[in-house]
Amino acid sequence: MDFQKRRVQFLVFIAGVIALSITAEKCRQLVGEESSSQSGKFTFLNCFDMGSGTLACGVKEGVKLYVYNIRSRHVEGVRHRAMEAALADALSQGMSSKDAGKQAVKEGAKAAKLATRQAKRIIGPIISSGWDFFEAIYYGGTMTEGFLRGTGTLFGAYSGGFVGEQRLGRFGYLVGSHLGSWIGGRIGLMVYDVVSGVHYMLQFVQAVEDEVNQTPAYESSEASEESYSY
Question: pTM higher than 0.85, yes or no?
Answer without folding.
Answer: no
